[in-house]
Input
Amino acid sequence: MLRFDIITIFPEIFASYFDESIIKRAQKNKFIKINVHNLRDYAVDRHRTVDDRPYGGGAGMIFKVDIIFRAVKKILKKNKKTRIILFSAKGKKFDQAKA
Output
């Protein structure tokens, strides 16, 4: 069985999709197992803050590394052979023209 652990700040979005699609059947038939983790559960402050301003300055917000580290570390305790895939905003923009 393939196991997927997704760390997000919007777990409800994933849960609704996985409970109503072909993925639901794959889970029911035990082909895959999907666990959705709320990144805010790993925050340490009372506001459950997961982002901050970029350290080098600039616009926008970035996720705090220590919170991501805690989340990944907990998932790795369940299975040491887990592969980690991190998505990044770096790269070429995929838009309608390229599609």
